[in-house]
C-alpha cells in the first residue's frame, strides 16, 4: 500500500443551518461512471443529497435535493439500502423514514413508528431485506422489508441499560452490533428456529478490555473480521474474531479485544470509519480528524496487531466533528460532517 | 483573538450568567450559592470553558436542569468555537458521575432542547429577572 502523506481539502459544502450529525455515501455510486453521491442529515430537520459533478471546473459538489417537511426534529442518522435505491433516516421525532429515489427525486414511502422517543441510528443488512434501528428507549428494533414498502417489526432487542447510540449490521454475517451510553458493545444473533429468535450473544464491556464511557460508533474492516469502536473515554479500540472459524461454521464466533489506541484525541471521539484499504479515520470533538494504519513492524505481532498514527488534521472543522465516512469507489475520498453546519470533502494524497 | 476572554471577564456578562434563576426557587443560582464567579474556569488558549456548580442538596433532582440552563446560557453567549464542560462540584451530588455524563452528552442535550416542556423551563430560568 502506498502510504498517504497529505490530506487535501477538496471542498466545503454549506447548506445545512444547524449541526450536521451524520452522512452516508450511496454505495452504488463512484463506480461504472456513476458520480459519487451521499446524504447528510442535520439538526435543521432536513436531509440533503450531494453529488459530485466531474465536469464542473470550480464547484465540483452540488446539493441535488433537500428532503424536508417529514421529520419534525433533528435527523440523527441516515443509511442507504445496498441497492442505493432507498434511504432510511432516523430522527429524534421517534420515527424512521424510508425515502425512495425515483430518478433523482426522493419520495417518503414509509414511516417506521414504534420507538418511544429519539431514534439515533439505522442500518440495512447486507442483502437489504432487514433494517435495524436503535434509540434512547434502550432497544434495538429489527424490521423486515415487505412488498409494497411495508416494514414489519420482527424483533425488539432489550439488553442495553442506557440509550443505544449506534447500530450496525455485520458486512457478511447475520449479526447486529450495537453500542451504547452504557459503555458496552452488544452483539446480537438470530439463534435460528422458525421464529425470529434474536438474542445477545456477546457483550464487550469494560471487564473485557472494553470502553469506560459511552461508545459512540463502530466500523468493520473490509474482511469483516476486525472492528474498531470509538468512545467518550477518548480511545479507539480494535476488536477481532477468528475469520477461518467464522467461515467454517454457522455458530457465533466470539470477538476479542486486540488493542487500544489512546492518547490521540483529547475530546469525545464521535465517529470512526475503516476504509477498504485499511486506513482508519476518526473524527472527534477536538475538531481533529486522525488516520491510523496497522503497524507492519513484525516485533509487535507477539501481542497481536498494533496501530500507528498515519496523519492528523487539526482544526479540520471549526467545531465538533460528528461523522467521518470514506467514499465507495477507487479514490481515497473522505467526507466529514460537523457542528459548524458544514461538510468537507477530503482526499488522502500520496504527495506531501 | 482576544474576544474569548472579553465576554467572560466582562462584568455584565458574568452578572447575567449568575443571574440564572433556580427552577424551583424564586432566587438566582448565585443567591443559592449554586454557582459562583470562580466556578467558571476559562482556558483561552485551548478555547475551553469549564463550569462547576454545586446543587443545593445532594439529591437535587433539578441538577440536570440547572446544568442544562448553564449550558444553554453559554451556548447563547459564547462564540461557537468554545468547548464547554459542565459538572457538579466533586462530592456535591449523590449521582455525580451520572449527572456529569448526561450534562456532557451533546446528543442528549440536543434532544432535550427539542423537548418543548424542557426548553420552556430553561427559557424561564434564563429569562431576564425581577430586578
TrEMBL record, chain A:
<dbReference type="Pfam" id="PF00400">
    <property type="entry name" value="WD40"/>
</dbReference>
<dbReference type="InterPro" id="IPR020472">
    <property type="entry name" value="WD40_PAC1"/>
</dbReference>
<keyword id="KW-0677">Repeat</keyword>
<dbReference type="GO" id="GO:0016226">
    <property type="term" value="P:iron-sulfur cluster assembly"/>
</dbReference>
<feature type="repeat" description="WD">
    <location>
        <begin position="68"/>
        <end position="100"/>
    </location>
</feature>
<feature type="repeat" description="WD">
    <location>
        <begin position="314"/>
        <end position="352"/>
    </location>
</feature>
<feature type="repeat" description="WD">
    <location>
        <begin position="208"/>
        <end position="249"/>
    </location>
</feature>
<comment type="function">
    <text>Essential component of the cytosolic iron-sulfur (Fe/S) protein assembly machinery. Required for the maturation of extramitochondrial Fe/S proteins.</text>
</comment>
<protein>
    <recommendedName>
        <fullName>Probable cytosolic iron-sulfur protein assembly protein CIAO1 homolog</fullName>
    </recommendedName>
</protein>
<dbReference type="InterPro" id="IPR028608">
    <property type="entry name" value="CIAO1/Cia1"/>
</dbReference>
<comment type="similarity">
    <text>Belongs to the WD repeat CIA1 family.</text>
</comment>
<dbReference type="InterPro" id="IPR036322">
    <property type="entry name" value="WD40_repeat_dom_sf"/>
</dbReference>
<feature type="repeat" description="WD">
    <location>
        <begin position="13"/>
        <end position="60"/>
    </location>
</feature>
<dbReference type="InterPro" id="IPR001680">
    <property type="entry name" value="WD40_rpt"/>
</dbReference>
<dbReference type="InterPro" id="IPR015943">
    <property type="entry name" value="WD40/YVTN_repeat-like_dom_sf"/>
</dbReference>
<dbReference type="GO" id="GO:0097361">
    <property type="term" value="C:cytosolic [4Fe-4S] assembly targeting complex"/>
</dbReference>
<feature type="repeat" description="WD">
    <location>
        <begin position="112"/>
        <end position="153"/>
    </location>
</feature>
<keyword id="KW-0853">WD repeat</keyword>
<dbReference type="InterPro" id="IPR019775">
    <property type="entry name" value="WD40_repeat_CS"/>
</dbReference>
<feature type="repeat" description="WD">
    <location>
        <begin position="157"/>
        <end position="188"/>
    </location>
</feature>
TrEMBL record, chain B:
<dbReference type="GO" id="GO:0007059">
    <property type="term" value="P:chromosome segregation"/>
</dbReference>
<comment type="similarity">
    <text>Belongs to the MIP18 family.</text>
</comment>
<dbReference type="InterPro" id="IPR034904">
    <property type="entry name" value="FSCA_dom_sf"/>
</dbReference>
<dbReference type="InterPro" id="IPR002744">
    <property type="entry name" value="MIP18-like"/>
</dbReference>
<dbReference type="GO" id="GO:0051604">
    <property type="term" value="P:protein maturation"/>
</dbReference>
<keyword id="KW-0159">Chromosome partition</keyword>
<dbReference type="InterPro" id="IPR039796">
    <property type="entry name" value="MIP18"/>
</dbReference>
<feature type="domain" description="MIP18 family-like">
    <location>
        <begin position="20"/>
        <end position="84"/>
    </location>
</feature>
<protein>
    <recommendedName>
        <fullName>MIP18 family-like domain-containing protein</fullName>
    </recommendedName>
</protein>
<dbReference type="Pfam" id="PF01883">
    <property type="entry name" value="FeS_assembly_P"/>
</dbReference>
